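User: Design a sequence. Structure:
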C-alpha cells in the first residue's frame, strides 16, 4: 500500500532505504550504480512508488527497485501475505501454503523467497519442486486444504516481466477485502525477516517443507480423466491428428499427460517451441491471442497435413485452437476467438451433462466482457446463467457459491482464453474427434451454433498508452463530457447525482443510439437512459461490484451491439470488448465495423492513436 508521505521523501533517502533493506548483491549494485551516475529519473521510476498489490497479485519488470519484481519486493509481498493469513485464518500455519513457479528468469529464486518467508513464521510449505503450469497451484491448495497459494509467473507477458499470483483457501484468486488487507500487511512488514532466502537444497532438507509436484500431478490428472465426456477415444479411430505448441513454456509434459488420460493419440509438437525458454525467441509476445504467435504451429500443420492446431501460453493457463479451412478458402486457417472457444466448450459440456442425466440444475458463467452468446445459449437450453466481473477470481468464487446452492456449475470462461489451458485443450480435442468422426469440422459446428442461438460477432482489441494521465482524461471525458462544459449538449445525457456531480455520457456513437450504460468505476447503471429525465427514485446501483481504482464503462446500442472499455490491471493498455448480435450476420458485421471505426475517433481519444 503506497504511502502519500513518500512523495516528499528525498530520492537519496529512498536510495539509502533500498540499500538498507536489499540483501541481494546484484540488485543492490543496480541502485548503487544509478545513484553514482545521478540518474534521478530512473531512480524516481524505480523507487518512488512501490509496486502495488491487488487482486491480480503483482506483475512488473524484473529489475531493482520498490516498483519492480525482485527478491526484496517478492519477500515483502510474501511476508505481508504470511502475516495476513496468520491474522485472519485460524490454524493458518498448520494448514500451510502452496508455492509453485514457472520457467521465467528468477522464477525459482522468487519462489524460494516466498517459501523462506512462510517457513520463518512456522508455516507448513507445500513446494512444487518442478516447473508447473499455473493450475497445479490452486489445485494443490484444494488438494491439501491449504490456507493459500502462490504461483510465480507472468503468464503471457514479455520476457522481462514476472509476477506473483495469490490463491486463497477456496483455490480461487483473491478478491476484496483480502487484497486490501494483504497490501496493508505488506506495508507493515517491509524489513526482511532473514537475510538470505533458503536454497532448493535447504528447502528439501527442511522438516516443514514438502516437495509435492509428483503427488499433485498424479491427483490432478486422475481428476482430468473424470472429465471425459465420450465413452470411447474419439480421435484415434478416425485418424485425427493435432499439432501442439506450449510456446516456449511449461505446458508440454502436462499436455502429453492430459492426452494420455483421455486416451488420445499423441500430438505433434512444434520443435522450436517445445521446451521451456524464458527468452521466448520465436515470438514477440508469448500469447496465443497475439497475431503471429501461432505461425510456426500453423506452418508445421500445413506441411504435415494436420487439420487442427492447439496452443497454450507459457504457464498453460490460456488455450487457443486453429483449424484448416477448405482448399481455396481465404484465410486458409481459422483461429478461434476466446469467446468462440467458450461457446464450443459450453455447448459440448451442457449436451454431455444432459445426456448423463445429471439431476442437479446446470449453471454456466462468463465475465461481463465475454460474449452474450452464452446467456442466449443457456436460455434456450434451460440452463442457469450468471455474469461476473472480469477475472477468474470472480468466476471461480461465484461458481463455488452456485455449487453450494445445489447447482452443477458446469462451465465458466473468460474471453481471454483462460483459465486451465490444459483441461480446456483436451476437452476441445475430444470435441474435435467427435465432430471429425461425424464427417464435420469445428468451423462448421460453430456455424450451426450461430444458426441455432443467433449471430454474434466480436471486435475486441486494445490500445497501448504509457501515459496514465491521458488514460484518466479519456475516461473522464466519456463520463463527464468535454472539460468545463457550459451545458450537457444535445449529444449527451445529463444525470445529476447531487453533491456537484453530473454524469454526461454520450447519447450515440455514429448512428447507433445508446440504450444502456454501466459505469463500474463511479457505480452507475441505467437501463433505457433516453427515458430517464431525473434520477429521483431511480435505482442506479450496478448489480456487479464497483471499484474506483480501475476504469470500466459499458454501453449497449439499439443496433444490437455492446461495448465495454476498461483499463488493464497488468499492462499499459486500454482494452475494448465489442460485440454485435442479430439474425443477419452481414448486417451484424457492418454494425460492429462502424462502431470499431468510430471508437478511437469519437469516443476513446488517446495520444498513442
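Assistant: Done.
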Amino acid at each position: 500500500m503506497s504511502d502519500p508521505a513518500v512523495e516528499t521523501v528525498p530520492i537519496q533517502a529512498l536510495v539509502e532505504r533500498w540499500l538498507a533493506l536489499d540483501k541481494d548483491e546484484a540488485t543492490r549494485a543496480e541502485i548503487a550504480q544509478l545513484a553514482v551516475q545521478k540518474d534521478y529519473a530512473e531512480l524516481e521510476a524505480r523507487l518512488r512508488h512501490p509496486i502495488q498489490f491487488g487482486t491480480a497479485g503483482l506483475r512488473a519488470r524484473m529489475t531493482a527497485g520498490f516498483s519492480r519484481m525482485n527478491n526484496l519486493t517478492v519477500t515483502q509481498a510474501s511476508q505481508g501475505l504470511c502475516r495476513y493469513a496468520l491474522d485472519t485464518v485460524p490454524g493458518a500455519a498448520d494448514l500451510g501454503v502452496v508455492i509453485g513457479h514457472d520457467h521465467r528468469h528468477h522464477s525459482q529464486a522468487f519462489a524460494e523467497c516466498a517459501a523462506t518467508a512462510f517457513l520463518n513464521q512456522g508455516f507448513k510449505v507445500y513446494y512444487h519442486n518442478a516447473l508447473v503450469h499455473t493450475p497445479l497451484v490452486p489445485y494443490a491448495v484444494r488438494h491439501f486444504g491449504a490456507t493459500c497459494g502462490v504461483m510465480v509467473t507472468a503468464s503471457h507477458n514479455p520476457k522481462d516481466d514476472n509476477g506473483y499470483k495469490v490463491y486463497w483457501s477456496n483455490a480461487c484468486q483473491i478478491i476484496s477485502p483480502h487484497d486490501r488487507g494483504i497490501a496493508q500487511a505488506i506495508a507493515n512488514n517491509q524489513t526482511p525477516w532473514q537475510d538470505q532466502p533458503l536454497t532448493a537444497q535447504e528447502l528439501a532438507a527442511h522438516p516443514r517443507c514438502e516437495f509435492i509436484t509428483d503427488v499433485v500431478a498424479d491427483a490432478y490428472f486422475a481428476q482430468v480423466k473424470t472429465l471425459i465426456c465420450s465413452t470411447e477415444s474419439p480421435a484415434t479411430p478416425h485418424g485425427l491428428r493435432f499439432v501442439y505448441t506450449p510456446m516456449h513454456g511449461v505446458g508440454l509434459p502436462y499436455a502429453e499427460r492430459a492426452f494420455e488420460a483421455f486416451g488420445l493419440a499423441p500430438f505433434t509438437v512444434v520443435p522450436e517451441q517445445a521446451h521451456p525458454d524464458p527468452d521466448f525467441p520465436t515470438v514477440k509476445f508469448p500469447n496465443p491471442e497475439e497475431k503471429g504467435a501461432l505461425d510456426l504451429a500453423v506452418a508445421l500443420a500445413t506441411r504435415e497435413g494436420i487439420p487442427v492446431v492447439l496452443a497454450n501460453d507459457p504457464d498453460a493457463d490460456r488455450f487457443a485452437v486453429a483449424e484448416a479451412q477448405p482448399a481455396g478458402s481465404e484465410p486458409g486457417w481459422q483461429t478461434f476467438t476466446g469467446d468462440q472457444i467458450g461457446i464450443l466448450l459450453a455447448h459440448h459440456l451442457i449436451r454431455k451433462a444432459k445426456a448423463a442425466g445429471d439431476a442437479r440444475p446446470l449453471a454456466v458463467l462468463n465475465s461481463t466482457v465475454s460474449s452474450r452468446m452464452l446467456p442466449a445459449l443457456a436460455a434456450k437450453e434451460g440452463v442457469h446463467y450468471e455474469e461476473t466481473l472480469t477475472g477468474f477470481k470472480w468466476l471461480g468464487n461465484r461458481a463455488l457459491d452456485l455449487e453450494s446452492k445445489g447447482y452443477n456449475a458446469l462451465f465458466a470462461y473468460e474471453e481471454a482464453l483462460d483459465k486451465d489451458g490444459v483441461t480446456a485443450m483436451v476437452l476441445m480435442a475430444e470435441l474435435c474427434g467427435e465432430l471429425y468422426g461425424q464427417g464435420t469440422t469445428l468451423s462448421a459446428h460453430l456455424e450451426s451454433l450461430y444458426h441455432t442461438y443467433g449471430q454474434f460477432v466480436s471486435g475486441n482489441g486494445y490500445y497501448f498508452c504509457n501515459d496514465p494521465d491521458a488514460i484518466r482524461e479519456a475516461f473522464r471525458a466519456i463520463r463527464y463530457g468535454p472539460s468545463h462544459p457550459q451545458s450537457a449538449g444535445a449529444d449527451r445525457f445529463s444525470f445529476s447525482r447531487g453533491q456537484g456531480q453530473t454524469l454526461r455520457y454520450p447519447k450515440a456513437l455514429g448512428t447507433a443510439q445508446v440504450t444502456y450504460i454501466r459505469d463500474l468505476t463511479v457505480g452507475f447503471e441505467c437501463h433505457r437512459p433516453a427515458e430517464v429525465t431525473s434520477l429521483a427514485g431511480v435505482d442506479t446501483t450496478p448489480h456487479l461490484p464497483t471499484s474506483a481504482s480501475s476504469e470500466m464503462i459499458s454501453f449497449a446500442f439499439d443496433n444490437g451491439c455492446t461495448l465495454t472499455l476498461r483499463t488493464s490491471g497488468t499492462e499499459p493498455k486500454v482494452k475494448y470488448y465489442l460485440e454485435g448480435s442479430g439474425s443477419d450476420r452481414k448486417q451484424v458485421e457492418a454494425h460492429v465495423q462502424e462502431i470499431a471505426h468510430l471508437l478511437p475517433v469519437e469516443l476513446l481519444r488517446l495520444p498513442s492513436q
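The longest strand covers residues 573-582. The two ends are 32 Å apart (CA to CA).
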